[in-house]
Amino acid sequence: MQHPLVIIGGVAAGMSAASKARRLQPDLPVVVFEKSEYVSYGACGIPYYLSDVIPDHNKMVIRTPQYYDERLGIAVLTKHEVLSIDTEAKELQVKDLETGEIKKQPYSKLIYATGARAIVPNLPGVDLPGVYTLRTLNDGLKVKDALASPSVKRVVIVGAGYIGLEVAENLRLLGKEVQVIEKAERLLINFDSEFSQIVSDELERNQVHVHTGEGLVAFRGKEQVEAVVTEKGEYPCDMAILSIGVRPNCELAHNAGIKVGFKGAVVVDRQMRTNVPDVFAAGDCAETYHRLLHKNVYIPLGTTANRQGRLAGQNACGAPEEFAGVLGTSVAKIFDLAVSITGLTEETARDFGFDVLSTTVTTLDHAIYYPNPRKIRIKLVYDRKTATLLGGQIVGHEGVAHRADILATAITNGMTLGEFAEVDMCYAPPYKGVWEALTVAANVAETEWQQQK
User: Fold this and answer.
1) Catalytic choice (44, 237, 250, 426)
2) Which H or E run includes 18?
3) Known catalytic residue at 44
4) pLDDT tier for residue 1 given thresholds of 50, 70 and 90
């Protein structure tokens, strides 16, 4: 009897792996173990669920366990926790969380796709009712239920990354008083500083009060959280949401002798293989190869998780292919602004030893004579000697995400400023000016580069 391909974790990477394996080998037994009751859901939609922009949490569930079972022949066992991995015997110990039964599950190959969990600091009061994290769909259900109480009027969000700021926007839509606390000296530290300031101004315009340079000290309260205490002050609240980052769920892998590395994530090669034969890893629990740095980093994004999972499923089925890598391309909506990034920031590039220049241009997102043209700010980072594009950041209103994708494509293909400026882009007054904003930025940068040669 053929042992199945077993996957630990049933969200982005895990279900992408299972689906790809099924397409490649229709007769291969595939078993997925998921600790929660949900699989294949879009966690990035949770902030919008809180404000009823997405009114039904089931809309975020892409496919159910029943779908995988009945349509694809994949056994998806929810509420099952893998307790241990024996890589020599090629066997798992699994607990049914509903019945308490513990059983053994052999595997032919294993894909480790356990994701990551929200970081919860060991500080006084962190266990108080009213202190929440917002990582999983279950987290979202709990927070939304709590927000429905009329007593929850003031919310403090700890952490000013994408999720924290998206949550801030959606809580303001609910009419909550919102404060954001950030330990770093500015928000969105994955961007260069001028973009952090633009976003901070947008938050303040929408009555989200941002406090940077304040480390978290404690949560104060008796039966319920009453205040968030920082190094510089105390902020009264009826709810606190921790959004200070994530940590890979890799204890199970580490205990099994599977190597972990950067930030505690599983070390993988570009075929998603671990150091243990027949064991692969993908998603937010794993490192990822960076195209420009030519090394593994840790960038937990849903897009990356799905790509890695698909490739892990393919390689586990004996169809080897290497992961092309990432640029960390991402975008976030923060009230009326969209902010995006791809590749290296100026600061990061220099930290990694690149000799770079940068050019920042503010122009319009569509033709000036068409109604409501608005400013768009673009920063290009490029190699001082060759003018090869290395990164870009954009903030504006219309077309920001699509322009970031264009930049990512250019960086992926190693284009120079001159080559990028000659790309034949479309034009229509409602969408773009005759000189596309990216082309304007590339032309200005090319001129500046020529002047410094």
Assistant:
1) 44
2) helix 12-24
3) yes
4) low
